Amino acid sequence: MVGLGPRKPPSRKGSMMDVPRDLLDQIKWLEEQFYIPTEKLKQITNHFIHELEKGLSVKGGSIPMNPTWVMNYPTGHETGTFLALDMGGTNLRVCEIRLPEAKGEFDIIQSKYKMPEELRTGTSEELWEYIADCLQQFLDYHHEGEKLHHELPLGFTFSYPATQDYINHGVLQRWTKGFDIDGVEGKDVVPLFEAALHKRGVPIKLTALINDTTGTLVASGYTDDQMKIGCIFGTGCNAAYFENCGSVPKLAHMNLDPEMPIAINCEWGAFDNEHVVLPLTQFDHTVDQESPRPGQQAFEKMIAGLYLGEIFRLVLVHLHETGHVFEGQDISKLKKAYTLDSSFLSLIEEDPFENLSETADLFLNRLSIRPTQPELELVRRLSELIGTRAARLSACGVAAICKKKNIKSCHVGADGSVFNKYPHFKARGATALREILDWPADLKEDPIDIRAAEDGSGVGAALIAALTLERVSAGNLAGIKAENA
Q: Of 454 and 252, which is predicted with more confidence?
C-alpha cells in the first residue's frame, strides 16, 4: 500500500503473526474501508478545485470562499504597537505585539483569561462586557501609571462563521464551539463590541476582524516570503490563501483592480457536503447523522481532531456488537459519544512497546476494558488507518489550491493540535502530496512544504491591523467601513 508508511515501528515487526484469522479478516476489512489510494486522492483533488472555483462564483457553493478584505501581503517591514484579541472556545487571549524596524521580527506580551461557562448561554451584553473588562485589565496591568494618548489599534480573531463586507465588520452567521447567545446571530458584532469598550472608556479601536486561518497565512508570510497558504488542522480544519480580485467573480460588481490581492478564507470544512467524491464509511455517515448539523462540514468530519476519536470509538463499538472484540466485557464507557478525542489515538500511535502495554493501560484506565494482545494489534492498526486517512485527505485541499493557482513551489503554514501533535500527520500528508502532484521519487526536497506556522491569532491579527492602517493612510479604502477607518 503506497503512502501508508511503515505499518508499525521496526521493534514490533512480525507481531501480526499471533493475531487469529478472524481479527486479521477484520483488520483487512478496516484497511479496505479507510485506505485511500493515489487515484482516489487525485479524483478528490480535482473535485476540490472545481468546488473552490464554484465558491468564488456569483452563485457560490458549499465552500463559502469568504473574502476577508485583507488586501496586501506583509513585507516584513511593518512597524508599530498593536493589540490582538483571540476569542476561543474556552479562553480569551489578549496580546500586545510590537513590530520593530528589523524585518520579520516581533516582540509579544500576552495574558489569558478563562471564559466563564455561563457566558456561553448568557446575554450579548454579558459577553461583550466581560471581553471589554479583560482588555481593560490587560492595559491596566501592562501600562500601569501610563497615560495612553491615543487609541491602540486592535486585530480581533473571531473564529466563528461570519460574513464580512468590510475588514472592520462581521455579521455572525451562527455560533459554534458550544456558544448559544441570543441576539448576536445575524448581527454585526463590531458595534456590540465597541459599545462595551466605549462604556468602560477603554482606549482601543477595532481595526480588523479576522479568522485565525487568515491570521496564520499573514503571520507565516511575515517571517517567510515563500509562504502562500495558511491552514488549520486542529479541532476543526480550514485554509486561507491570496487570490487576485479579478479571479473572484462574486466581487466583480465592486470594480476592484483585477490584479489586487485579497485573502480568501476558504472555510473548506464544508467541502463535498453533497457526498459526491469523499470515500465515506458507515462510521462517517453515523458521525454526520448524529452531529448537531447533519449534512454540513463533510470534509471536516473526516479529518478534524474533534471527530477522529469518535470515528475510532464507533468502529470499536461495531466490532464489539458483531462479536469480534472485547467479548464478555462491559463497554458502557466506550458507548458514550465523544468520550474519546484525537489525543487518545495519538497515545496509541506513540506506544513504543512491542506488547503495546501503554495502550493496554490506556484502555483499562479510561474505558475499564482489558484488550487481548491480538485486540491491541487491531486497535493499533485502526488508529494508524484513521490518522493516515485524515493526513492524506488534508493534502487534497493543499494540492487543490496549488493546482488552481498553478503554484509549483511554496511553503504552507499549518497550525492546530492535529498537525502539531498527532504522530506522523505531517509526514503522511507530505507523502500524499507527492502522490497527488506526481513528483519524481528522487527529489531531494519537496517543492511544496507544509510546515509549522506562526501564531496566527496573535501575531497575525496584529499584522492585519497594521496592514489595514497602512491601506487607510494610503487612501485605499476597499473593504474598509469608512466611518470606522
A: 252
